[in-house]
Structure prediction request, 67 residues.
Amino acid sequence: MYKLKHYLFGWDYIVWRNSCDGGIARVHKTKDGTVWYWRYKITHLIDRITDPKDVIWLTCHPKDYFS
Prediction:
């Protein structure tokens, strides 16, 4: 499904994982350059991506978000 959304809307996706959970999330970027994703959207918990190696990039390359 994420490949279809990337094709139709141009949205980029990552795979995230922590010690007890994981998932696929859409990547967002603010005007000031902060890259983040919704870890748990229902509880409004976001997570910032500070190191591109912390996640697996599914539909783009980290260079698109980090120079």
